[in-house]
Amino acid sequence: MDPFGPQPETLGATREALHRLSTYVIAPVRHEATGRFGLRSTPGGHGTPEFDGRQVRVEGSELIDLVDGSERRQQISTLAAAAEFLESAVDAETAAEHDSPEVGDIDESLGIDAASSQYLGAWFEMAFAALHAVAADPESVDASEPQLWPGHFDAAIEVGDEDHRASYGASPGDHAIDEPYLYVSAWWPDKIGLDTTDAFWNAPNFAGSMLKLSDFATGVDPIDVATNFWQESRNKLG
Hints:
Elements: H1 11-34, E1 40-42, E2 45-47, E3 54-59, E4 62-67, E5 70-75, H2 79-85, H3 114-136, E6 147-149, E7 154-159, E8 166-171, E9 181-186, E10 208-212, H4 222-237
Helix pairs in contact: 1-3, 3-4
């Protein structure tokens, strides 16, 4: 059962559109100013942290540019229009990763559905709350700052020493798994002799564990579900 309610039919298409927008337009605006492109959960969606008195974010189907307390909003239409609104340019290289969607036609409508965008915003809000809890846990060795990586379009941290380090993340879904899911991916499974025949390490394409949103325990706060899943995975990694 999905604790967020039924997933909108347009979730997959909106997810890919927001992935493109985040990777090729939003993240590069921050990178141009600071040399960094990590994003964050923001009210009703996701976007940049504040930088140089500015924040760029998505809320539903709107793109918001907040500069020194002055806010502008625009309905999201195309990549080209978004870049023009932000007085920037579509950047196909800076934040892209191997699993990023193609830039595509920058003048084609992105077709972002507001309800699907808000659904994904709620997913990232939950993920960041749980990631902060895990990162602050004294048992989490050398935890990194939670980031929403635009190229992968997932929220994640890294935890562990040089042998036990792993990525702990929350994906909004992808081509392989068409729903939001949590994951833990061990960096060096051979170093720690990770037993991938153990049913706990159930990730299909990497050495690690995963939990689909549809498999979240019912009647439990999703933040607690995510926190407990990541902590259990961390403890099993040793």
